[in-house]
Amino acid sequence: MTTFGGNGYKKFSINPDTQAMLEIARREGIETVWDRLAKQEPQCGYCNLGTSCRICAMGPCRVDPFGDGPQKGVCGADADIIVARNLARMIAAGASAHSDHGRDILETLHLVGEGKGGVYGISDPDKLKRLAAEYGIPTEGKSDQEIAAELAWEMMEDYGMRRKKLPMAARAPAARQAVWENTGVYPRGIDRENVEALHRTHMGVDNDWVNILLHAVRTGLSDGWGGSLVATELSDVLFGVPTPKASNMNLGVLKADQVNIILHGHNPMLSEVIVAASQDPELLELARSKGANGINLAGLCCTGNEVLMRKGIPMAGNHLMQELCIITGAVEMMIVDYQCIMPAVTETAKCYHTKVISTFDKAKFPGAEHISFDPARGLEIGKEIVRKAVENFANRVPERVYIPVEPVPMMTGFSVEAIVGALGGTPEPLVNAIKEGAIRGAVGVVGCNNPKIKQDLGHTELTKRLIENDILVVVTGCATVADGKAGLMVPEAADLAGPGLGAVCRALGIPPVLHMGSCVDNTRILVLAAALANYLGVDISALPLAGAAPEWYSEKAVSIGAYVVASGIYTVLGTAPPVFGSPNVVKLLTEGLEGVFGATFAVEPDPNRAAVLIRRHIERKRAALGLPALDPDSIAMPEPALALF
Ligand code: BF8
Ligand code: SF4
User: Fold this and answer.
1) Angle CA(529)–CA(532)–CA(534) in degrees, nearest 5?
2) Which ligand is nearest to the CA of 94?
3) Residue nearest to atom 9 of ligand 1 (CA)
4) What pTM does this model have?
């Protein structure tokens, strides 16, 4: 590929490691995501506007809301209906992805309860008991295994149709639950909401675009207060509640003298046993016999975030690094589970000695070797896979190994339990810092990379603007790697924060940007927001909080956006969702939702401008709570800096 010459790589990423790998990709003629995006351009305008529909065989249809073309599809659906249906289907797909991941963890807990969990067990009995109490399960005199069996059985019903309300949604303040009741969006069963979303968006079912979107919100809520929360809570029970620890990030975490294994995807079940297998004395000896000085694990995407949070395993990169890490020539194996794994990785791997191993029967990849994962034989399978990686070290071509950078240190492990623990067991010090104004508010900067935006620019610029204005940032997913690589996630980054936030960080020894986990762990942010609101006796929408997804690409991000806004948190998106073909839908999402959920979406690609939107929002919320606040209009909005992209 020769798409980009000279030092043009800076156009695609702020990161030296990405730029260095793009140069090698060009030299070696290896195609990357940026090449494929260029070949797709110009992308379909109808699809960008959300006004194309192909859900039935009378179509495909395109409506032309701003021109002279057709205003209706063959069935008569107009732009509002088509945009609403498409958005609802995106949310259902995203919610299903998170929730099915949660189900896999839940089934493992069930196996543990049946005594068939193999290497898996209960790592945090206290959290198991807290959850059991939440589900009304008596625990007195019962073993962990018995409690696990009962809890798993109960939680399976969260996916079904017997419940009127998802039990964990009761963690939200009463006022928020009343909003959901009154608008008819209180989530019932996880599978139920997702199936109903597909039903309603079939041709000729729900044709009231507002009604479609309300159900889409309910589907999102079944993810945030259901499926994703199941994934987070039960991963903590099985693998441990994360605690603060130090780690490293970027391609420099790969080691030239060791067997390198990349853990890519989202589900921590296999990666947890790979961590154990990589420490197996026999496999370490095998590695030595092959001339390697050890077995080095590195994460990518959210599987990376999971093992980073719990085990401190370093991360090689985020979404746009998945092909590029193979191009280092230093990767013996990439183990994938599911979600966000580009099918392109197996093509890239063919140019090197890297083996790609797929592991979940629901996620196969042409060109990968498939080793079917069975939790009951977890460690055995983990060792089999690591052995193959070690044996593959002999196939490495040392002359092709190029690890372009030194790793950047970062701090991870800020679960809600860890944050409250660091505060001395109560949210009071954080609440006081917010009340006094030392911390103006808090923002979740979350989500993906998207090759349409210069990699990590959106995350890092937004984060810097927020922390320098005394706004605490929490990160999950691929935003974590962006901010980590930029050096924003070490305690010393307190110097980059404003005086108030900086002083709080120094007193507590924490960074101004706290890592709360993977994308299902956005639920940790919800739970923390709910705890703060309950502590203050207000609704979540009253708090000086916001969310941002500066570089999102995935349907999962749309589901997250839906449940975050419906939980009362204003959210700014950096890439536009495909809704602009319906001015009615846009008006509802950016204005109308305020009157319903006390929060809206905004779309602002320029991170400096997004920061101002968020700062103004936070100051408005502070004023409404009677806290010292700036005049929002005194915060100047910069001109769009399109040269940034
Ligand atoms: O669930 S942030 S690119 S890796 S979708 Fe995917 Fe987006 Fe990354 Fe994790 Ni989340
Ligand atoms: Fe066309 Fe309607 Fe079928 Fe969609 S549902 S493809 S708009 S006929």
Assistant:
1) 105
2) 1
3) 302
4) 0.97
